[in-house]
Specification:
alpha/beta, 8 helices, Flavoprotein-like_sf
Length: 255
Amino acid sequence: MNVLWIFAHPEGRSLNAALRDEGLAALAELGHSYQVSDLYAMKWNPVVDYDDFGHDPRERMRVAAASHEAYRSGRLPADIQAEHEKLAWADALVVQFPLWWYGMPAILKGWFDRVLVKGLGYGIKAADGTVLRYGDGQLTGKRAMVVTTVGARPASIGPRGVNGDLDDLLFPLHHGAFWYTGIAPLPPYPVFSADRLDEAGYAAAVAGLRDRLRTLPTAEPIPFRRQNGGDYDENLVLRADLAPGRSDLGVHLRD
């Protein structure tokens, strides 16, 4: 497989960096090819602005339309085009970051904002006019796995933990970014109590990551429902006969 490893941590001597290096070594041992987007090392610009699309700042910019036109005409900046080339090459993505304030670091959110422009990440239609998203799209066929470090203890970030459930915290990324664009999200690989790992804990974290990377090509994705699979009505609301009486995020998982 071709694997794009997107890494978002500012410290090269961090736990995250050590796990990244172990993960890349595992990919090589397994015979996979990889590329790395180390966003902090690249000094990645996370901010969408006029310069991304060559837009005249004296005129009102509609971001979706401007990004679509710049994408179609090949006028996107070189840094975005380079990430598009990596995406086209990759069969799978590993997206690695520390969980900060219940989400991604800003620099990583900015990667999604700038890279998944209209025409690539969204705004895709089939020949019959059907909008392709949530399971369908230009990136369908690729898979992605989150690797994240979490300061909290495992119990406190479970369904009844004070920090909330990890699946819910990652729903915007798994469902709203990966699945929306057609990428199949795999279950995440979290490392808990990240600031308190001892030598044995680190060894276990590395072993677990290597195990998960071994199954990267074959693991079953999170079973989200497809938008165009018949489970949603014309208003994109889940049919009343599916998961009746429930309104949690889990209703978007197939039974």
